[in-house]
Model the fold of this input.
Amino acid sequence: MLVSDVYMLTLQYALSGDPAKPCYVLSYKGLMIMLDCGLSISSVLNFLPLPLVQSPKFQCLPNWNCRDSDIQLEDGEIKECCGCAFVNSAPEFVPPLEKLIDFSEIDVILISNYTNMLALPYITEGTGFCGEVYATEPTLQIGRFFLEELVEYIEASPKESTARMWKEIQHLLPMPLNDVFKPKNWRHLFSMDAVNKSLARVRMTGYDQKLDIFGALQVTPISSGFCLGSSNWTIVSGQEKISYISGSSTLTTHPRPINQTALKYSDVVIMTGLTQAPHVNPDAMLGELCMNVMMTLRNGGSVLIPCYPSGVVYDLFECLSVSLDNQGFTQIPMFFISPVADSSLAYSNILAEWLSTSKQNKVYIPDEPFPHASLVKNAKLKHFKHIDSEGFSTEFRQPCVVFCGHPSLRFGDAVHFVELWGSNPLHTIIFTEPDFPHMQALAPYQPLAIKTVYCPIETSLNFQQANKLIKELKPGVLVIPENYTQPPAIAPQKLDLVIDPIPDKMIIKFKRGEVIKLPLKRKRGRVYLNPKMAKTICPQEVQPGVTVSTVTGVLQVKDNIHDLLPLEPTKEELADEHKSKPVGPPQPYSQLRTVRYEWGTLDINLLLKKLAQDGFTDLKVEQGSADEVTLLLPSEDTVIKVSEKSTDIVCGGKQSLRLKLRDLLLQCVQSF
Done:
């Protein structure tokens, strides 16, 4: 049973200003739904690197002193290097905006991929949060790798003191610190205990699994094709559908392909997570990376590739190993260094159901879906937790290719290799992650002689692919970050790197801290009819092919489920029913009440006849507009106005006369 045409207002809160690290909240049907909880890490570029051992280079950097003698910073709080200023303290991160939403009111968190869940401990721990968190199994497990690696990196190089004063005099600081956005909102990283408690809240789900949210909504994760376990989400309530598209890809890589069909014809599509490198082609960048690696190795140098512990690095292992074999560098070792390197490599090869068809087929040969398993067996790829791990110093030899974190170059083993190789022009550092501007990442290490190559490999949707996808999905309303309506800063002249307008469709844009209203017309709502009431329905044909029936009952709303239940009889009616002692089987109570329902158009001629029969002889008729008639009863000081949509009786306070006229009117319409 459906009811229709109810307008509903849905609000979206934007808690993140970085479309690549989204965090939004929908207020929909009385529920607060968080879409992703991305953590912006770019703030760490404003801090000095955390070396594994004390670094003479960073210790010898000059202190910055304020020209205002009344302002005194802690000794060494701000360091200068080649015209740039850096905070000499433990790095801080930009969590989702807290003041806009009380996190304790969040009912459910939907996570689209492991890169968009790194702020989860900030949201679930110490905030009173008691909702549900949903993610696919690979998203949970690989997200755990990312979080554990991040915490280990920070805890491996603790700072003796915390810099605070610089935030109070930000306007007086040199570049780039005087230009950072609201540093007082930055926070230090959470602990491993907070990570474990936060991840314990996550409930794993599979692709296309329909999840009931308090009876009000049904949410479903849909394969997005971006990385292992990545998903888009559909949020369905009755006849309305909202699709959340974040971190999607139409390219053929190792994850399962994107499912576009499930996203079609949504009332609202929220799109974010487009490529951060729209001006380059990932295949071309992969080719350029391999070429630069080969050139460096031929010259006797080694290559450093700062990376995350999962994702594109799997494709780099595969592509680079083939290139090394083809170029005769079969003896050149590749090293993968990360606190979670062994777990990441092992886990990736047991995820057949989340992989592309070609990768899945290898499992049934049987064969490992990723080549890094055979590379490890053949000692071509060697993995260690840290550079001080047992066996590393024995196995390490140059020239080589080293994969290690962190891509920001602010912590992790990458800091050691930049210091080790930075002064040698034979070596090369290749940046593949677009999260960090590579020149800013290198700034505190300057001057450097090492060769620098920027090859951002980003497989998420570019603007051309996104525009094509939008046309195919045919959304009612498109919601996008404001950034997507203007060319990116890295290519301001390329006017095609934007989301195109959609003819006859609304596009709503937003930015960090905004609360926007999503126009959503609720067409229908589902009501469940009680079986006892269903038995009493007697349909009546009101015109050929159209049969209707009315029901009278009590509407019960519980857990967002609407049930229509039979009327409960009053005590007096139960007593009367008992006295009557009906013969035969008991009848449902709804049949004991004599209720008639009028419908159709008032028959004016029949009404005039009945009024005359009832003694109203001085009746006058005035024809108004095409659908309006006025009947005058001068002797009774009464006016009856009849139109297509209403009938009004004005009778000067004579209640008995009004009821009499009402009964005559009801005799002149059809009823059942």
